[in-house]
Amino acid sequence: MQGEHTSPHLEHRIAFLEDKIAQIEARNQFVEQNKGWETSGARIFLIVIITYLLAALLFVVIGTPGPLRNALIPTLGYFLSTQTLRSARRIWERKLQP
Fold first, then answer.
1. Does 21 share its domain with 55?
2. Exposed, middle or buried, 46 (CB in 10 Å: 0-12/13-18/19+)?
């Protein structure tokens, strides 16, 4: 960008702004990837499995009758909350848009 009409100060500012834009774009890409994981079916499935296993283990340790069956309650609670919260979020987002 060297020319008659550009000063070193202006070139420095342009380079600085280009660097800032690149940083923002990199952050946005990271945020989008993270958002994708947060809402993915794979993540929900893994949390459902982990929740079930931990709840079942806890119920076995404390001597709850029917620990495998009872472990379904917190697991289903989590799963249903992810499904209803998605629907609620979509409704909420639609109301925000003009």
1. no
2. exposed
